Amino acid sequence: MAEAVPDTVITGTHDAAAVLISGFTHDSRAVQHGDLYAAMAGATVHGAVFAAQAAERGAAAILTDREGAERAAETGLPVIVVPSVRPVLGPVAACLYDQPSAHLKMLGVTGTNGKTTVSYLIDGGLRAAGYHTGLIGTVETRIGERAIKSSRTTPEAPDLQALLAMMLEDGVGAVAMEVSSHALAYGRTAGIRYAVAAFTNLTQDHLDFHADLEDYFEAKAKLFTPGYTEFSVVNIDDPYGRRIAQRLTDADQPHWTYSAAAEPSAHWRAAHVEPAAEGSVFTLIGPDDCRVPASVQLPGGFNVSNAMAAIVALVAAGVEPQTAAAGVASVAGVPGRMQRIDAGQPYLAVVDFAHTPDAIGTLLAALRPVTRGQVRVVIGCGGDRDRGKRPMMGAAAARGADEVILTNDNPRSEDPLAILEAAAAGAREAIATGAASAVQVIPDRAEAIARAVAASRLGDTLVVAGKGHEQGQEIAGVVHPFDDAAVLRTAIERSLTEGGASERSMPL
Ligand SMILES: CC(=O)N[C@H]1[C@@H](OP(=O)(O)OP(=O)(O)OC[C@H]2O[C@@H](n3ccc(=O)[nH]c3=O)[C@H](O)[C@@H]2O)O[C@H](CO)[C@@H](O)[C@@H]1O[C@H](C)C(=O)N[C@@H](C)C(=O)N[C@H](CCC(=O)O)C(=O)O
Ligand SMILES: Nc1ncnc2c1ncn2[C@@H]1O[C@H](COP(=O)(O)OP(=O)(O)OP(=O)(O)O)[C@@H](O)[C@H]1O
Ligand SMILES: N[C@H](CCC[C@H](N)C(=O)O)C(=O)O
Ligand SMILES: [Mg+2]
């Protein structure tokens, strides 16, 4: 392993060469007997502070930097000292698990919105092509039919490589995975080379982590360079996608562009798009006169774009276009994405994961044409995340919906009312400049949903946005069980039998 990492120093009283490592983790709380514990500098603490805990839990050795070396040595375990731990996590983990990704067809998806959706659609296409598949992303990790709950969109490198090793062991041949900008900035995917990577779009998010939009873009753009990916698939309806495509063209790197807006210069274009409440049917036109009848069971024009990303990525990975399209068409839904809740109510009720200004605008624009009455949205903004997007989210909601109910969405360590006020300020601004929307603030999410249900009438659309598949509401560091789909269903059922709703609300 030392050869994999330059400038490595091994210290300690043991014969390090003879130490057997059975696993690898960066979290002392997850150490199992025989693990190598990576003690790294974090934003809040240095992992070496937990070296003793790792040793107690049975760590076999510690990987750290100069700052952590002394504390690590105090455990008496062999210590491997490298200049910086994060950059070597990927290569070391890949080495310890015997380079699992080298034996897997890896397909990566990045972009602000659509990663989870496109990954599920790719998974459908891979299955149609006969692959035993792996899936890694926000909602879950799947090894064939076995699902493991995800805690991250893209796991830290030791966990990621361990998952890939489990997949290989299980006979998986191809993996669809989300690659977040955090992952690219931190090098979580180092040690993996993607056969194909797809770019969906880029709009404001995560500016708590990235210095600015340009920094966020450059993190995403890394994936479309030869060290990361062999073949790139890029949405040129998006201005940042056009920049990536231009770079690929300039560097003569293999790539395909796609456009749901039928941009003539795109390698792949959508034609004859027929949108419907249940999804869309379209024709995919590609190089060499390729014409493929395609469809996607997820409603909204943006899901035509997502379906194109998936089909084009699959074809780039060697799947026949018809098979790829059939596999994508077979995906019945993605948990918490445009998920319809039907409890017999006379209006459309949907749970969706829109939690960026662009996603909220896109979502509401997609729901308007299928709504005869009012569009009503229940939405909040996460705490300890990009503060700049909150007024933008409030404004997007006010511009797209007739009625907006602002409510809590994981306030985390922040004051919930301060977060709501930031979103409300954006909504007020939008209304002052022409948006015709009624906005109210109901901090308690279950109450907000009940109030929205009580207001809904025949032909309306009610969308509960921002939490999608999430199963918890994090308030002051405590995660309370909360499932939008279940709460919405119960509220609808109750309204159908009892009618009425709570009277408590706060004026905007
Ligand atoms: C901003 C970010 O990504 N932060 C990550 C970062 O945290 P940090 O630098 O603050 O770490 P720290 O708390 O100072 O700890 C330093 C080290 O001590 C270790 N430690 C800490 C405590 C302890 O008891 N024992 C222990 O070993 C930690 O594991 C870490 O290795 O390193 C930690 C260890 O790997 C991560 O858990 C943590 O992710 C946090 C939980 C997080 O919320 N990340 C989110 C924002 C994230 O990564 N999101 C993206 C994108 C989401 C999307 O758009 O889909 C994702 O890919 O999920
Ligand atoms: N192509 C798209 N363009 C704009 N908005 C989209 C697009 N695809 C999905 N969305 C919106 O974004 C939400 C999140 O979609 P999805 O979960 O697929 O994205 P993601 O990139 O995985 O998000 P995250 O970064 O949180 O994991 C959806 O619920 C929908 O409202
Ligand atoms: N991957 C995103 C999900 C946000 C979902 C939303 N419910 C929130 O809590 O802000 C994040 O961690 O920023
Ligand atoms: Mg995701």
TrEMBL record:
Keywords, alphabetical: ATP-binding, Cell cycle, Cell division, Cell shape, Cell wall biogenesis/degradation, Cytoplasm, Ligase, Magnesium, Nucleotide-binding, Peptidoglycan synthesis
Major location (coarse): cytoplasm
Annotated motif Meso-diaminopimelate recognition motif, positions: 409-412
InterPro entries: Mur-like_cat_sf, Mur_ligase_C, Mur_ligase_C_dom_sf, Mur_ligase_cen, Mur_ligase_N, MurE/MurF_N, UDP-N-AcMur-Glu-dNH2Pim_ligase
Keyword flag Amino-acid biosynthesis: no
Residues annotated as domain Mur ligase C-terminal: 336-468
Location in or out of the cell: Cytoplasm
Modified residues (N6-carboxylysine): 220
UniProt pathway: Cell wall biogenesis; peptidoglycan biosynthesis
Domain Mur ligase N-terminal catalytic span(s) in chain numbering: 21-93
GO biological process, any: cell wall organization
Role according to the record: Catalyzes the addition of meso-diaminopimelic acid to the nucleotide precursor UDP-N-acetylmuramoyl-L-alanyl-D-glutamate (UMAG) in the biosynthesis of bacterial cell-wall peptidoglycan.
NCBIfam families registered for this protein in UniProt: murE, PRK00139.1-2, PRK00139.1-4
Name of the protein: UDP-N-acetylmuramoyl-L-alanyl-D-glutamate--2,6-diaminopimelate ligase
Species of the source: Actinocrinis puniceicyclus
Species classification: Bacteria, Bacillati, Actinomycetota, Actinomycetes, Catenulisporales
